[in-house]
Amino acid sequence: MEYKDEIGVIGIDDAPFNKYDRETLIIGTYMRGNSIVDEISFKKIEKDGFDSTEKILKIVKGKHFTKINAIFLDGVTFGGFNIADIVKIYNETKIPVIAVMEKEPDLLKMKSALKKYFFDFPQKIEMLESFPKPEPFENIFIQCIGINFEEACILIKKTRLRSKIPECLRISHLVGRGFLNME
């Protein structure tokens, strides 16, 4: 499929937090292609909670909803172990969801941590196991719902600038890091 240069995409990442925080921010950057930022949105999520899916849906269903052709997520966990249900996000929006990770997630390690620290671990593990296995692409890993792997790779190439990840995700990450030094 051929994608126009200014394809509408949104990238969602979380802001850093410390162990005493009860909540953190997720940041959504809506862009056209890899160079035009049209909106940056913020929502608070519960650290290790269960609300990231709903908050991501609120960001996505904002004023640019009809122009979004892909939703890029920085992995599937936000604010610690607040797992975004990428299947539900796709089912409710009918927009392809592509989770991008710098390194391959260690599912066994994640399951072990969930069992050790969370009473609701069966629900979280079941969700993780329902997602497609992350696949390597160049020097990142991706999980996609609503789009095939080859198309997802084309979209990543189309929406990145000088980074290995889509520019909308990179900007959300930068904005999130800005909160580290806030006084």
UniProtKB/TrEMBL annotation:
InterPro entries according to UniProt: Endo_dU
Highest taxon listed in the record's lineage: Archaea
Family: Belongs to the UPF0215 family.
PANTHER family found in the cross-reference section: UPF0215 PROTEIN MJ1150 (PTHR39518)
Name by which UniProt lists this protein: UPF0215 protein GYY_08890
Originating species: Methanococcus maripaludis X1
